[in-house]
């Protein structure tokens, strides 16, 4: 294959990626060749495992089908720089950090010399503040294969079977959300109809079911709000129940909805159920309520609060 032919095949792939379909005449005009050459180039791509599909008739033409090899990404200068910077940021996201680093290494190997100073300049001056500042626990590790398995079940509308902290579950999967450096699955129990949220780092997928289901709409259809509310009540490693000497609305005005669920008791008291990845984190944060409260559970929280109180008193 000559250099001219190779360059033309890359140009042909670029055209296929720019819009869904092309006629043979349009491709010939764009490439400056005959329609016969286009047909020959299409056959060359097919021998390289690129699934170029052809349709006949007055509106016939060519398009790049699904499957086969991943076509080379032909990026303009701005796109290449944007992808490089995005991949650098992706290195800090649990579950895709390693893959982002590998993809970035491959991209940097083929970056044109003229673009390297721009990418290096941006990388040297852009800083990322710590994201995990609300807990003393390390970021959870999520296997990228687990995320792919969950996403596939959602996309294919299939029942999803998995072990969740030693409990076997079967659910209808609907959404996969990333929040505060964690991944969550929103799903529905097909037998009870109950909706719930599951942390991806606690999920171990089992054999694929290949069993499709008829989707059911989530009440209010707000997956993000539902996830934040469920995480507050059950999605943390530890939880605490506090009786607060203040109306429920006053407590709600002081907390983030993802870290607490508030229940009204009387006009002047309420119950706050809050969670975190450690009791130390809960002990530190509930003092920021600025309200009197009583610990109902767990009992292990009380000595931590006494230690903090003594430390503050000494200060």
From TrEMBL:
The highest taxon in the source lineage is: Bacteria
Q: Name one GO molecular function term.
A: DNA-binding transcription factor activity
Q: Name one Pfam family in it.
A: WYL
Which UniProt keywords are present, listed alphabetically?
Transcription, Transcription regulation
User: What Gene3D superfamilies has UniProt attached to this entry?
Assistant: Winged helix-like DNA-binding domain superfamily/Winged helix DNA-binding domain
Q: Does the keyword Transcription regulation apply?
A: yes
Report whether Transcription regulation shows up as a keyword of the record. Answer: yes
Task: Specify the HTH deoR-type domain's residue ranges.
Answer: 5-64
Protein name as catalogued: WYL domain-containing protein
Q: Which organism is it from?
A: Saccharothrix syringae (Nocardiopsis syringae)
